[in-house]
Design a protein that fits this description.
single chain; mainly alpha; Cytochrome Bc1 Complex, Chain D, domain 2; two-stranded antiparallel ribbon; 12 helices; 4 strands; 55% helix; binds heme C
Length: 304
């Protein structure tokens, strides 16, 4: 059974020793104390110790208790033989938790397949208004996306807010779906070694002036504007409004993926950035991607 035989032989042996040792240890304990287990031998004799006036009779185990003890030992041995309890030993029944999970997941798949197929045939714009479809999309989002984008999809540093109309790659159903199917690899090169530390500081001043920040130094802004035109406009556009085809953000709108303070913008320029959105084609498949797309699409529609 390949899915359980990946324990090393040391740990497999260790588990086996503990399981069998416990069962046979209990059996041994019953055996060595068997002399005191004659059921008709109730006495008034005590064990000889006393605490606060309380003493203990030297009597055998109650019969029902002893029988249960033995039954437990027998049960333990049978269980160990049937199920994969002993390290890499698979058990006579061939049961594994993985098979069980697979069976349940296949059953769920079969049950929901017609529903998914029906929903997948309807356009995203329509599903984005369908209560039931949105609930399913939201559940998929909670399980697959919330770790990075947050449970309310508002994002975090480095993880875009999906509710704000501000899109790196585009917010149409087609673009969202493309993002989910293929994933996205953003490439913002590192500029520290190319334009130097002074260039980084000046360009950061210029970038911050684009979104109307007031705490910028005008001589730095003038110097930065030249560097920007020469180095950055190719991706971010001459006006700094970004380029969705490559996920280069709009730098003029005051919405920041990594942060808009002088220090953070300098850091972005010096070291570059490489945000990765994973592809969900393998994990979710077409029909579920269609549903999550509708959910994500609905988030930014709601506020219009
Ligand atoms: C491992 C973290 C991670 C997970 C999980 C993840 N994302 Fe992302 N996602 C990102 C990052 C990072 C970006 C931004 C990539 C970049 O910097 O260009 C992104 C970008 C996006 C975008 C593009 C936003 C825009 O402005 O164009 C969408 C849409 C999106 N994610 C939706 C989802 C959905 C839906 C899921 C779940 C199915 C998901 N993401 C799961 C990290 C993640
Ligand atoms: C090859 C294309 C390319 C070039 C050239 C480029 N950038 Fe970028 N830039 C990007 C991409 C793509 C991102 C998004 C990175 C991510 O999502 O991880 C980005 C991100 C940024 C950010 C972060 C924005 C935020 O919201 O936090 C800033 C600031 C920035 N670039 C400024 C510049 C400046 C200034 C230059 C020129 C010195 C420059 N970029 C050159 C593609 C480029």
């Amino acid at each position: 059974m390949s899915d359980i035989s990946d324990m090393s032989s040391f740990w497999s042996g260790w588990v086996t020793v503990i399981v069998l040792g416990s069962i046979f240890g209990c059996a041994w304990l019953l055996w060595v104390t068997r002399k005191s287990q004659k059921f008709d031998s109730e006495t008034e004799q005590t064990m000889g110790h006393e605490f606060d006036g309380i003493a203990e009779y030297d009597n055998p185990l109650p019969k029902w208790w002893l029988v249960m003890f033995m039954a437990t030992i027998v049960f333990g041995l049978i269980y160990a033989a049937l199920y994969p309890t002993l390290g890499n030993y698979g058990g006579l029944l061939g049961w594994t938790s993985h098979n069980q999970w697979q069976k349940e997941s296949d059953a769920a798949q079969e049950k929901f397949a017609p529903l998914y197929a029906e929903l997948a045939a309807r356009p995203v714009e329509e599903l984005a208004k369908d209560e039931k479809a949105l609930k399913m999309g939201q559940r998929l989002f909670a399980n697959n996306c919330a770790v990075c984008h947050g449970s309310a999809a508002r994002g975090n540093i480095g993880f875009p807010n999906l509710t704000d109309h501000d899109w790196l790659y585009g917010g149409t159903p087609e673009k969202i779906k493309e993002t989910l199917k293929n994933g996205r690899n953003a490439m913002m090169p590192a500029w520290g070694a190319i334009i130097g530390e002074e260039g980084v500081v000046a360009t950061a001043h210029y970038v911050r002036s684009l979104s109307g920040q007031e705490t910028v130094d005008s001589t730095q802004v003038a110097k930065g504007a030249e560097l920007f035109a020469a180095n950055c406009a190719a991706c971010h556009g001459a006006d700094g409004k970004g380029m969705p085809a490559m996920g280069a953000p709009n730098l003029t709108d005051g919405v920041w993926l990594y942060g808009g303070t002088q220090g953070i913008v300098e850091m972005t320029l010096r070291n570059g950035r490489a945000g990765v959105m994973p592809s969900f084609q393998q994990t979710l498949g077409d029909e579920k991607i269609h549903l999550v797309t509708a959910y994500v699409y609905s988030l930014s529609q709601a506020k219009e």
